[in-house]
Amino acid sequence: MILKGMGFYAYHGVYPEENRLGQRFEVDAELRLSLKKAGETDDLTQSVNYAEVYMVCKEIMEKQTFRLVETAAETIARQILEKFPIVNECTIKVVKPNPPIPGHYNYVAVEITRGRENHE
Hints:
Blueprint: E1 2-10, H1 16-21, E2 23-32, H2 36-41, H3 50-63, H4 69-83, E3 89-96, E4 108-115
Antiparallel strand pairs: 1-2, 2-3, 3-4
Helix pairs in contact: 3-4
């Protein structure tokens, strides 16, 4: 299950102006779980509701402030694993398209993978 390019306006960053002015962020979430029963039964309770995953990401990105995008990614992964027991593993990518650093690049990002064995 993949949710790609979720957009949020948030106030994460090391520099005070990032926390005051905010900026755009994108989040990708890839959840690994068995979708066999959901596919066979057409029953949402055998899967994960995309809207609920989006809301987890939105709440974390827009209602909390972190210095590091690493912390945002870890928090999203932890919440997904806690809220959705059917998910075995998730990969979270937090993209910061316009960080306040000089140079030419598409974006900077952090991507982590967390599963039940490394979720505590």
